[in-house]
Specification:
- The protein folds into 2 domains: 2-106, Trna Endonuclease, Chain: A, domain 1, CATH 3.40.1350; 119-236, no CATH class.
- The chain is 50% helix and 26% strand.
- The chain has 6 helices and 9 strands.
- The chain has helices spanning 2-16, 64-77, 92-98, 108-139, 162-183, 206-236; strands at residues 20-28, 33-44, 47-56, 81-86, 103-106, 142-146, 152-156, 189-194, 199-203.
- The strands form 3 sheets. A 5-stranded mixed beta sheet has the order 1-2-3-4-5, sandwiched between helices. Strands 6-7 form a two-stranded antiparallel ribbon.
- Helix 2 runs parallel beside helix 3, helix 4 (108-139) runs antiparallel to helix 5 and helix 5 runs antiparallel to helix 6 (206-236).
- The termini are far apart.
């Protein structure tokens, strides 16, 4: 059946992007259980995202009633986004109904371009949020000593290696700059540095930046977690004053 083939075609697109995509899924909402053409779920770094995708392989433009029905389903199941994929376009009222909502109206060809960009944007937001969190956690690894008058001295807390701390701060700073570059489409975007050679690691595309920055973030997270454990161990051993 052509309409079922169309659903599978859309689902395959999301699967190729690393998402879970279930065709004709039954999803329970607050008020009802909804039969959804393609139920897309993907998780990145602990955050789950859910999209409702409706597929209309019709010979006529889709009316606004279908947009309103999709919006209702999206809200009821608590999805993050709704997509209505139609090969024959949409009536003017459909576009009006989707304006300023989390429902996107698109053809399959446009979806191919938009889906990857949309998923990448979500992933990049999650990664950048992790970098901000790691910077905050690492910032707690220094104590501030106030000297005479206005002098201030920073020293590592017991259990923290100051040289490693400076390297981690350099990695975080490079990542923050890389995210700024990616947002404006400027490549290569730096994602790290080889401390032995002093050469930076760079990505040439969003996809590559996501992959390489994810590796750097995991490395930084492992170091930060280990240092937090070392600080706690030093505290329990009575080596750090309160």
């Amino acid at each position: 059946m052509p309409w079922r083939e169309f659903q599978e075609k859309v689902a395959s697109l999301f699967r190729d992007l690393g998402c879970s995509a279930e065709v004709e899924a039954s999803v329970k909402g607050v008020r009802a259980t909804h039969k959804i053409d393609v139920w897309v779920v993907f998780e990145r770094f602990g955050l789950e995202h859910r999209w409702v995708v409706e597929c209309k392989d019709w010979g006529t433009p889709v009316p606004k009633e279908k947009v309103l029905a999709l919006k209702t389903a999206v809200d009821d199941v608590g999805a993050d986004k709704g997509l209505l994929v139609a090969e024959s376009g949409f009536q003017p009222g459909a576009f009006a109904a989707a304006t300023s909502t989390n429902v996107l109206l698109t053809t399959f060809a446009n979806l191919q371009a938009l889906a990857e960009s949309d998923v990448q944007s979500v992933i990049l937001e999650d990664l950048e949020r992790r970098v901000i969190t790691l910077s905050s956690r690492a910032g707690a690894f220094l104590n501030t000593d106030r000297g005479a008058k206005t002098s201030v001295m920073m020293r590592a807390r017991p259990g923290v290696d100051m040289n490693d701390y400076l390297k981690i701060q350099a990695l975080l700073s490079i990542l923050e700059g890389g995210f700024r570059s990616v947002k404006v489409g400027r490549f290569p975007a730096l994602v790290g540095i080889n401390f032995d050679t002093g050469r930076g690691k760079a990505a040439m595309s969003k996809r590559e930046f996501i992959e390489l920055s994810g590796e750097t973030i995991e490395y930084v997270n492992a170091w930060v977690t280990a240092q937090e454990a070392a600080i706690e161990s030093a505290r329990r051993g009575g080596k750090e004053s309160t």
